[in-house]
Amino acid sequence: MKISVIIPVYNEVDSLQELHHELTRVLSDYIPYEILFIDDGSSDGSVELIKRLSQSDSAVNLIEFHRNYGKSAALSEGFKYAQGDYVVTMDGDLQDDPAEIPNLILKLEEGFDLVSGWKKIRHDPWTKTFPSKIFNFVTRLLTGVKIHDFNCGLKAYRNSVVKSIEIFGGRHRYIPALAGQKNFSVSEIVVN
């Protein structure tokens, strides 16, 4: 069972070394695996660091955009190249904990097609959390997909899901809803 981890990157040079270290520690139980860094036009040295990581770790791959296209484009490109039976997406800024990957995988193995992280406890100001609650409530109501946090970057998918949904513009926020529309089973777990 191969795992692919897709990480959109935009000016994350300060967090990438630690993220890579944490990922390799967690993923060592899931060999083979691949880590796909999708650089979305960084200008801070992120690309050079990822290239150095790829020279010392054959599991690391870089897909490089020459300008900023946004998170949907980065995820879409990662989905095209992901070879894993299971695909995990996470942000590159260390706000998503790699230690949650085994929990996401366990939930997939219960039979779900997509498992979304739910950041139940957030430390953001109310100016971020309140609009997020409204967005999630309305999206849940309109789509019938019963999860609490559509926009959490930490998700796990069966490969068939990522190969069958199209994301562009800001549609990465709606991935669970898009999967639900295609009759994939969607669940969530609370994540750190």
Mean pLDDT: 91
Overall body shape: globular
Number of helices: 7
Main β sheet profile: 7 strands, mixed
C-alpha termini separation = 25 Å
Global Rg: 16 Å
Name the beta content range.
Answer: 15-25%
Order of helices and strands: EHEHEHEHEHEHHE
Q: How many β-strand runs? A: 7
The residue fraction in helices comes out at 25-40%
Strand order of the largest sheet: 3-2-1-4-6-5-7
Poorly predicted regions are none
Helix/strand/pairing class, anyone? alpha/beta
Notes on the protein architecture:
- This protein has 192 residues and is α/β, with parallel strands linked by helices.
- It has seven helices and seven strands.
- It has helices at 13-27, 46-56, 71-81, 101-109, 126-143, 159-162, 175-181; strands at 3-9, 33-40, 60-65, 86-89, 114-118, 155-158, 186-190.
- A seven-stranded mixed β-sheet has the order 3-2-1-4-6-5-7, with helices on both faces.
- Strand 2 (33-40), helix 2 (46-56) and strand 3 (60-65) form a beta-alpha-beta unit.
- Helix 1 (13-27) runs parallel beside helix 2 (46-56).
- It is globular, with a radius of gyration of 16 Å.
- It starts with a strand and ends with a strand.
- The model has no long low-confidence stretch (mean pLDDT 91).
